[in-house]
Write a structure and sequence with these properties.
The structure holds two protein chains of two kinds. Chain A is of the alpha+beta class. Chain A has five helices and five strands. The two termini of chain B are 28 Å apart. Classes of the chains: A alpha+beta, B mainly alpha.
């Protein structure tokens, strides 16, 4: 009987503990900066799209929720003609972010994506693109890659030596 | 003495009893949450008080279905018996000097009789549902209630001996010098445990816990009939708390506050105690429950009676 009374006293003291409930939507749970939430497509610091349409994210996606088509603009810069993610399939694993060579596709700690109509869960490029560089500021893929596009020829990237002319005999 | 305004007292008592029982829906959920480090309902109205209204609307508008294989008149009658017996017992509870519906001179016996009739509700519910799980739940409830009623009556005889009457108002008057919990502490503990078993609350809620595990005597009930069981249980809790306050803790006696305020303070203290019991204790197995009742509680009740009788006789 004494153990019963002690149990009851212990439970009674819980009235003076702080409650563990997070009163959503007035309070929100803390999500770490690397939390794998909503997927976005980021831009360079110069404002151009980072995505080069390499299909790596679509290839690595375990549930095949990414669909895109690559095309080139008049300066030779590749970009996706359309880029579609089906969020009803997405498992938020983050493999696409790990696979992306240009830091274009990123997962941010935003989880409020509820919808009543399932087709609204398929996000197009306009809904995925953001205006800033996301989690990786200051990185511009086109400045460090070796591809020649309008405005930057071969050998003109950062940390790159000028190209050697293989057809001349001079050293 | 009986109230000089009988109709007003009856209506007032009915309104108060049903309000407290419905308010217990909110109070129990908030109380359980308080002791479980969480919030209860706090969205629906100020502090979630309109949750009661929401629950009532839900219960009233649910489909009130009677199983085709059930025994119809008995099926419909069973939940009503719970509420009827408890509300009838409220008629003899003294709330304040002058506020009592009927001052029966065998008030305590009336309460014991009504609680015995309350067993019918569970048995009839379990039987008429024509469902083996309901039957097992009903049988367990009946066995538990009947066993614990035996020493409930015995534990109250000590109070009757000290007060010299079965009349509840006279029992309250007899506690002016000292509340009966002090000389009759064992009787208080026994009556408390028996009361918990009679209202089928945790830790003696095996009939209902079966609904969490399998079914239980109210598995086939929905809509307002289930609401009757539900409210009937809360009315039972209120009744037992009121009786503990009246029989052992001096009813409406107390210094400088008006008597009715003291009664309600004691009533809500014991209701809170019932809710704390539900929050804290695990459920015993049925055979443990039965053996405890017959092999421990009943001998203690008899011993209590023996000692009380001996002491009163020695000091006469």
């Amino acid at each position: 009987m004494l153990s019963v009374l002690r149990t009851m006293w212990d439970v009674f003291l819980h009235a003076f503990h702080r409650r563990v409930t997070v009163q959503y939507p007035d309070e929100k749970a803390y999500l770490a900066p690397r939390y794998r939430g909503r997927i976005i497509l980021s831009r360079d610091p110069d404002g151009g799209e980072r995505c080069v349409g390499c299909y790596l994210c679509a290839a690595v996606c375990p549930v095949d929720c990414i669909a895109l088509q690559a095309t080139e603009d008049e300066h030779g810069r590749r970009y996706p003609e359309f880029f579609r993610i089906n969020f009803s399939r997405c498992i938020f694993c983050g493999f696409c972010e790990d696979a992306c060579p240009t830091y274009a596709i990123q997962l941010i700690p935003d989880v409020e994506m509820g919808e009543y109509h399932r087709p609204n869960l398929v996000y197009e490029k306009e809904q995925l693109l953001i205006d800033g560089p996301g989690k990786y500021p200051g990185y511009n893929y086109w400045k460090v890659c070796g591809v020649a596009i309008g405005g930057k020829g071969k050998g003109e990237a950062e940390n790159e030596a000028p190209a050697t002319d293989l057809r001349s005999l001079l050293p | 003495m009986t109230s000089p305004y009988p109709i007003a007292t009856i209506i007032g008592l009915l309104v108060a009893a049903l309000s407290i029982a419905s308010g217990l829906i909110w109070l129990e959920r908030r109380g359980l949450a308080l002791w479980q480090d969480r919030y209860g309902p706090n969205r629906v109205g100020p502090f979630g008080l309109l949750q009661v209204v929401a629950d009532m609307i839900k219960i009233f508008t649910k489909e009130d279905w009677i199983p085709p294989f059930a025994d119809k008149p008995v099926f419909v009658l069973a939940p009503a018996i719970v509420v009827i017996t408890v509300l009838m017992t409220f008629a003899v509870v003294p709330i304040a000097p002058g506020i009592i519906v009927t001052d029966l001179n065998v008030g305590l016996l009336f309460f014991l009789a009504m609680s015995s009739l309350g067993v019918y509700s569970v048995v009839l519910a379990g039987w008429s549902s024509d469902n083996k799980y309901s039957l097992v739940g009903g049988m367990r409830a009946a066995a538990q209630m009947i066993s614990y009623e035996v020493f409930m009556g015995l534990s109250l005889i000590g109070v009757v001996v000290l007060a010299g009457s079965f009349d509840l108002a006279k029992i309250v008057e007899a506690q002016r010098k000292m509340w009966f919990v002090i000389p009759q502490f064992l009787g208080f503990v026994l009556f408390l445990i028996a009361g918990i078993a009679e209202t089928r609350r945790l830790p003696f809620d095996l009939p209902e816990a079966e609904s969490e595990l399998v079914a239980g005597y109210h598995s086939e009930y929905s809509g307002m009939k289930f609401g009757m069981f539900f409210v009937g249980e809360y009315l039972g809790v209120t009744l037992i708390s009121a009786l503990i306050a009246v029989l052992f803790f001096g009813g409406w006696l107390g210094p400088w506050l008006p008597p009715i305020v003291w009664f309600f303070i004691k009533l809500f203290f014991f209701i809170g105690f019932f809710i704390l019991l539900r929050a804290s204790l695990p459920r015993p197995r049925f055979d443990q429950l039965m053996s405890w009742g017959w092999k421990l509680m009943l001998p203690l009740a008899l011993a209590n009676l023996l000692v009380t009788g001996a002491v009163v006789l020695a000091f006469r």
